[in-house]
Amino acid sequence: MTLLTLENVTASYGTSQALFGMTLSIDQSEAVAMMGRNGMGKTTTVKTICRMLPAEGQIGFDGRDLTRLSSHQAARLGIGLVPEGRRCFRDLTVEENLLVAARPGHWDLARIFALFPRLGERKKQRASTLSGGEQQMLAIGRALMTNPRLLILDEATEGLAPLIRAEIWEAVARLKAETGLALLVIDKTLKELRQVADRAILITRGQVAWEGAMADLDAETSERYIGV
Ligand code: ATP
User: Fold this and answer.
1) pTM for the complete prediction?
2) Which of 115, 116, 103, 38 is nearest to 76 (CA)?
3) Which terminus of the chain is more exposed, N or C, with fewer CB under 10 A?
4) Which CATH number is 49's domain given?
5) Residue of minimum CA distance from atom 11 in ligand 1
6) Is residue 194 part of a domain?
């Protein structure tokens, strides 16, 4: 069943248009990778889905029209975002950061700590004392505590060391396997996305340039639209 649909969505920053008729969909339990070169509109697409930026066109989630909803309402419907730049409350502990995000459902502290054991070991530590990778795990944990039906990861491993990146991707793969949560994952490293995504959407200049099964994404196409 389809969970999220964007139909002919346009969005602008002032007079500068960033999305030019974005059309895509994500099914329940599907993991979709969104890729494209810098500035092509990946984060802007995420902002329109999360209702952080006004948009024209149709945005539907679970049969509801999202277009006129606020970001709070979108979150309440089950759209969980891990934004670029891993925002946590620096002066709160790991545990407090997770608890303030909590909404009733599947996820609780024990489940988050099972997914990210490092967070359990540091639950009484202030977020500001965590490493970059641990802060990213906390940001994912916070999004999960809202019990989303779609989890969006925007450049979740950017700037992190390879071992930490691997740990995060491994957790995301486990999340997918164990819970079947729908995922929209934005990243630049195709190799890692291949481990978690069923389908790829490549975007260029605010539009979908190519989409298909991850297995069908060949070197020529990825070179053309992602540059890898
Ligand atoms: P990156 O990989 O660099 O994050 P992206 O694909 O996520 O790139 P967007 O951030 O969505 O790209 O940017 C799409 C276009 O919108 C770019 O031309 C960018 O310069 C422009 N843009 C993004 N944010 C703003 C803003 N706050 N104000 C004005 N223009 C913006």
Assistant:
1) 0.95
2) 103
3) N
4) 3.40.50.300
5) 41
6) yes
Structure tokens at 214: 């991850």
Q: How far apart are the CA of 208 and the centre of ligand 1, in A?
A: 16
- Position 165 in a domain: no
Q: How far is CA 15 from the centre of its chain?
A: 27
Per-block mean pLDDT, blocks of 10 residues, the chain (228 long): 96 96 97 96 96 95 93 94 84 96 94 97 96 94 96 92 92 94 93 93 96 95 88
Atom of ligand 1 nearest to the CA of 40: 6
130 Ramachandran zone, left/alpha/beta (phi>0; psi -120 to 50):
beta
Cβ–Cβ < 8 Å for 190, 222: yes
Q: What tokens were used for 213?
A: 């099964």
Beta strands (DSSP E) in the chain are: 2-13, 16-27, 31-35, 56-61, 64-65, 79-82, 150-154, 182-186, 199-204, 207-213
Domain of 200 in residue numbering reads as 1-78+150-155+181-228
Task: For residues 79 and 118, give the distance between their C-alpha atoms in angstroms, rounded to a whole number.
Answer: 25
Alpha carbon distance 83, 85 (integer Å): 6
Which residues are near ligand 1 (CB < 6 Å)?
13, 16, 18, 36, 38-44
Q: Which two tokens stand for residue 146?
A: 């809202």
